[in-house]
Amino acid sequence: MNRYIVATDDGSHTLKVDEMQEHYHSTFGAINESMHVYINAGLYHVLQSKPHDLAILEVGFGTGLNTLLTLLDEKISHISVNYTAVEAYPLEKEWWTKLNYTEMLDKTDAATLFHEIHACAWNKTIAIRPGFILEKIHCKLEDFTAKKKFDLVYFDAFGPDVQPELWTEEVFKKIAGMTAKEGVLVTYSCKGRVKRALRSAGFEIEKLPGPEGKREMIRGILKSVP
């Protein structure tokens, strides 16, 4: 895929894919979107009821931004996190080394950790730091088989108009089968067909205020597996 770097409205980078005419993140702010959707509405919500031994699945590792923000968050510094990220098309080093997230975040060890999460081997279980285990899986979602039940799912695939095959009832039923009861799924999309597919897969839907530039987002709570 032909990609190029775009500066978003909060100053942080995203990538645009020419063939799809799609960005990896919101052009209104890459870091702001990830914080709003995945950290604030997802991670912090789950930590209220499950403050220990958290298992997270990310659909769409992409630039590694969601992984980095999770890893750097002080609220998980004293708990055990198993983080699994599925990505069909990993970024080459020439791209992720140019992204400015660590400069924007300005946190101790951010640059080192960002390098580690990208440079570590695919399809292996890696301790990025004590208590944070990362497993990056290089495959398409339809070929992924989970080894555990997940408490939290970051669903961050390209949009449903670009990759409709990843936003179907069948896909969300597969994810429901990997998700713990009362587990949480968060995503930036709030399209009607996405809500219907999630409900059919057993998720109870909450419409939440979206990040900058988007009116609403979805948080789903798994109540039953069809």
Question: What features would you describe in this structure?
Answer:
With 226 residues, this protein is an alpha/beta fold. It has a single domain (37-222), classed as 3-Layer(aba) Sandwich (Rossmann fold), CATH 3.40.50.150. 28% of the residues lie in helices and 29% in strands. The chain has helices at residues 30-47, 65-72, 93-96, 101-105, 110-119, 169-178, 192-200; strands at residues 3-7, 13-17, 22-23, 54-59, 81-87, 125-129, 132-138, 150-155, 179-187, 203-209, 216-222. The strands form two sheets. An eight-stranded mixed sheet has the order 6-7-5-4-8-9-11-10, with helices on both faces. Strands 1-2-3 form a three-stranded antiparallel sheet, with no helix packed on it. α1 packs across α2 (65-72). The longest helix has 18 residues, at 30-47. It is globular.
